[in-house]
Amino acid sequence: MAQFRRIGILTSGGDAPGMNAAIRAAAREALAGGVEVYGILEGYQGLIDGNMKLFTSARDLSNIINKSGTVLYSARCDEFKYPEGMAKALKTCKDNHIDGIIAIGGDGTFRGATDLSAHGIPTIGIPGTIDNDVTSTDVTIGFDTAMNTAMNMIDNLRDTCESHARCNVIEVMGRWAGHIALRTGIASGASAVAIPEIPFDEEAAIQKIIDQKADGKRSFIVVVSEGLVGYAEKLAKTIQERTGVETKFARLAHIQRGGKPTLQDRLLASEMGATAMKFLFEGKSDIVLTKVDGKIGYRNIKDALTVDRMFKKKLKPEEYEALSAEDKAWMEARCAAVQADMERLYAIANEIS
C-alpha cells in the first residue's frame, strides 16, 4: 500500500452536478485513512498558483453533497500545458507535501492528469462532465442531472406549444456528442431528434410533423444536439416554411449545468470518489475511472484518450497502426458498443415519436 502525506483534489474544465459529491467522498476516504487533503482551487491554475485549502476533518466536507457546480471552482489553464507551468505545479506539490492528485473532469483534465503522473505525482482521473462524451465509460458524473434539467425545461415548452399549436426546435448541450439530445428527445416525446453520430433525415422528420398535424396533433418538439452547430435555428425556419406550423427556436445552454444533482449523480460520484482514493492508496496511477455494465473499473488514461479519439474519428492512421493488437481489439469493441447503443436508442426515438 502506497504511503501518502497529503493528497490534492481538483476539478477542471466545465462544471458538472455531482462534482461536490465526488470531492466529498474522495476527501473523506483519504481522511479516514489518516491522510490530509488539499482542495485545489480553480483546477490546474490553482495548482500552479498554490491556491488551496486544507481539509483536516470530515466536517470540512459537510453540506456539499447536494450542491451543484464545484466548491473547488474551475478554470481553463493553458499555462499547465507548457514546461514552465508544469514546473510551478510540481513545486507546489513539493512545497506542500502533496504526494498524489485526484482530478475530476473531462478529457482535457485527463491529459493534465497523465502529465502529472509522468512527472512522479500519482494521479487518478474521475469523469465529470454533463456531455457523457468519455468513451471508455458508460456514464459520467453530471450527465443524469443535465438530462433531467433539459427534460423538465422541454416539458415546460411543450405546455405552451400545446396551447398555441406550435413547434419548438430545442438545442441542448453535449458539446460534440449527442447523448443528452438522444435521451431527452425520447423522454420528452419529441417528434424528431438530430445528433452528430447518426445521419438525420430532415425530409422524413418534416413529413412526420405534417402527418401528425393532419392527425390532430397540436404540439411538436424537435431536439437537436449543439454538436450540429447552427443547425437547430435553420431547422426551425425550414419546419415553419414547409409545414405551416409556427415554429420557435430555443437554446437551453448553460442552465443545463446547474441544479441540484440527482440521486443517480450523487451515487455515481460518491462511488467513484471513494474508489479513486482506494485505488490511489493501492499504488495505482495514470488511470481514469469507468463504469461499464454497472461495474466500477478503470483504464489507463492514454488508452481512454485514444479510444475517445477513435470514436470521434480523430485518431490518425499512424496512431492506430502503433496500437497493439490487444488495444485495437478493445478500442474497436468499445466504440462499436457505444455506437450500437446510440443506434438502438435512435431507432426507438423514431419508432415512438
Report on this structure.
By secondary structure, this protein is of the alpha/beta class. The protein has two domains: about 5-140 and about 260-315, Rossmann fold (3-Layer(aba) Sandwich); about 145-260 and about 340-350, Phosphofructokinase domain (Rossmann fold, 3-Layer(aba) Sandwich). The protein contains twelve helices and eleven strands. It has a seven-stranded mixed beta sheet with strand order 3-2-1-4-5-10-11, sandwiched between helices. A four-stranded parallel beta sheet has the order 7-8-6-9, sandwiched between helices. The relative contact order is 0.16.
Describe the secondary-structure layout:
Elements (H helix, E strand, L loop, with lengths): L5 E6 L7 H14 L3 E5 L2 H7 L2 E4 L27 H13 L2 E8 L1 H12 L4 E5 L15 H22 L1 E7 L6 H9 L4 E3 L7 H13 L5 E6 L5 H13 L2 E6 L11 H19 L5 E6 L2 E6 H11 L5 H5 L3 H27 L2
Parallel strand pairs: 1-2, 1-4, 4-5, 5-10, 6-8, 6-9, 7-8
Antiparallel strand pairs: 2-3, 10-11
| Number of discrete helical segments | 12
Largest beta sheet: strand ordering: 3-2-1-4-5-10-11
| The CATH architecture of the largest domain | 3-Layer(aba) Sandwich
At the third CATH level, what is the topology name of the largest domain?
Rossmann fold
Quote the beta fraction: 15-25%
Strand runs, count: 11
Report the order of strands and helices: EHEHEHEHEHEHEHEHEHEEHHH
CATH class of the largest domain: Alpha Beta
Shape descriptor: elongated
Percent of residues in helices: 40-55%
Q: Assign the structural class, choosing from mainly alpha, mainly beta, alpha/beta, alpha+beta, or little secondary structure.
A: alpha/beta
The Rg value, from CA coordinates, equals 22 Å
